[in-house]
Design goal:
Blueprint: E1 3-11, H1 15-26, H2 28-34, E2 38-43, H3 69-72, H4 75-90, H5 95-109, H6 120-137, E3 142-147, E4 151-156, E5 161-165, E6 170-178, H7 193-196, E7 201-203, H8 213-222, E8 228-233, H9 237-248, H10 250-253, E9 256-263, H11 292-304, E10 308-321, E11 324-331, E12 338-343, E13 345-348, H12 361-369, E14 393-395, H13 411-439
Parallel strand pairs: 1-2, 1-6, 2-3, 6-14, 7-13, 8-9, 8-13, 9-10
Antiparallel strand pairs: 4-5, 5-6, 10-11, 11-12
Length: 440
């Protein structure tokens, strides 16, 4: 059996991993003390390295960052925008991006980039270029191997980690960083496999707040012979983005019949409902997502047209009968009254789930070995974001469970926590190098 050995393995190849490697490259102690090239493997089943889902090809081109440029804390991003803005603007070819440009044109023309909410895809292009240049500059000290695969099994012997991926390849490392974007393959309510795999059941279970809506929703609805009814499960920011998508595409307006939004609270974030949309016209949909008022006007069009029915309830089951989805719910106020709703499409926006709800083999394996915080969605961590009971197992991203990272896409938060992890990794690499020298 062949066994590939690495000093560090990063599970998940998006921004959380990029941020850790970024700080490893920035710390000069790393290179002066180690005395050898450090080998890192980055595993990502999507293969969109450093961008991941929120900033990669799956992100709709008119979806924006949740922070303005200044609040990302990325000075390099500001410099990159200044160098590339003319070319980026010249290549805008969609109605939605043209709308965005007109909205921010005055700020852009006066070079007040820090106040702008830029497209996620642009940040993805920036982070890819940044990481490419950093790795090239540090190629003498750092070797990064990209693995387009998924880790499915893991063992920890108290001192090191051994892994098996989906192709049954075996790997070994002294340290591990879990950097996946959100709980994968979650099932917060009963749903059979045939329904889950149905092309008209669209879930964010694998890809955070992004659903590849262009292929999964736009074409089927546009080409439908008649109007379609849509059931949205949950009222999170993901639901807001879906409603914005449905309202902002003229090709879909005439094809969308009724939209039923089922959630525990019975309204969108910040209390937006069909009864109070006028009063809320000037507010953001969420303090966590300042860009949501970019979507607000479009969402309010659907509400004003009477197309959204808000229902306060708990989802019990999703089934597929007579070519329609059937969603069974109970009234969340008394937990007794049972109701059913049907639709041509079901879009699951029920949030990030929890470790206990995951069918991920890797997360289940980790949860059996290391403590999970009760009632929360991730592992218990101590100082330096190291999982309690482990040795060299660190977490960055949403599974970290820190209050500052409740917002999945906080670039500043992801980089802040990555800096903590990178410093501890460097300390341990340096200590290991000193022990090696002593033994020689």
């Amino acid at each position: 059996m062949s066994l590939e050995r690495f000093d560090l393995i990063l599970v998940g190849g998006g921004l959380s991993s990029a941020a850790i490697v970024y700080y490893l490259c920035k710390d000069q102690r790393f290179y002066k003390s180690l005395g050898k090239k450090v080998r890192i493997a980055v595993f990502d089943k999507g293969g969109d390295y450093w961008r991941g889902v929120p900033y990669g090809s799956l992100a709709e081109q008119d979806f924006l960052l949740v922070e303005n440029l200044e609040n990302t804390g990325m000075n390099e991003f500001s410099h990159w925008i200044e160098l590339n803005i003319e070319n980026l603007v010249a290549n805008i070819d969609s109605k939605f991006m043209k709308e965005w440009y007109e909205r921010y044109r005055q700020l852009i023309d006066s070079k007040r980039y820090g106040e702008c909410y830029f497209p996620r895809r642009w940040f993805g292009l920036f982070i890819q270029e940044l990481m490419r240049d950093l790795l090239k500059m540090n190629s003498d000290s750092l070797e990064v191997t990209f693995k387009h695969s998924e880790i499915t099994d893991l063992d920890f012997d108290g001192d090191a980690y051994s892994y098996v991926d989906i192709q049954q390849q075996h790997y070994f490392s002294k340290m591990l960083c879990l950097c996946i974007g959100s709980i994968p393959q979650k099932r917060p309510f009963p749903i059979n496999e045939s329904v889950r795999r149905h092309p008209r059941y669209i879930s964010n279970e694998l890809i955070c707040a992004h659903f590849n809506l262009y292929e999964r929703l736009f074409f089927p609805v546009k080409n439908s012979p008649g109007c379609v009814d849509i059931v949205i499960l949950g009222s999170s920011a993901s639901a807001v983005e879906v409603l914005y998508y449905l309202s902002s595409r003229p090709e879909l307006n005439s094809k969308v019949g009724n939209i039923v939004l089922l959630s525990k609270c019975g309204h969108l974030v910040d209390g937006i409902t069909a009864d109070n949309y006028v009063e809320n016209k000037g507010v953001s949909l969420s303090t966590d997502r300042p860009t949501s008022d970019h979507y607000l006007a479009y969402v309010l069009k659907l509400i004003k047209a009477g197309k959204i029915n808000f229902v306060q309830c708990l989802v019990e089951n999703v089934d597929f009968l007579d070519n329609r989805f059937c969603v069974s719910v109970v009234d969340s106020t008394d937990n007794r009254s049972s109701i059913e709703f049907s639709g041509d499409f079901v879009i699951n926006c029920t949030g990030r789930g929890s470790i206990e709800n995951s069918t991920s083999l890797l997360l289940n394996k980790l949860a059996s070995k290391f403590p999970v915080e009760p009632g929360l969605r991730g592992f218990e961590v101590g100082g330096n974001n190291e999982v309690r009971g482990s040795k060299g197992f660190f977490i960055n991203g949403p599974l970290l469970n820190r209050g500052e990272l409740k917002q999945v896409e906080s670039i500043r938060g992801v980089f802040r926590e990555a800096n903590i992890i990178a410093k501890e990794l460097i300390n341990r690499f340096c200590r290991a190098s000193e022990k090696t020298l002593e033994s020689v």
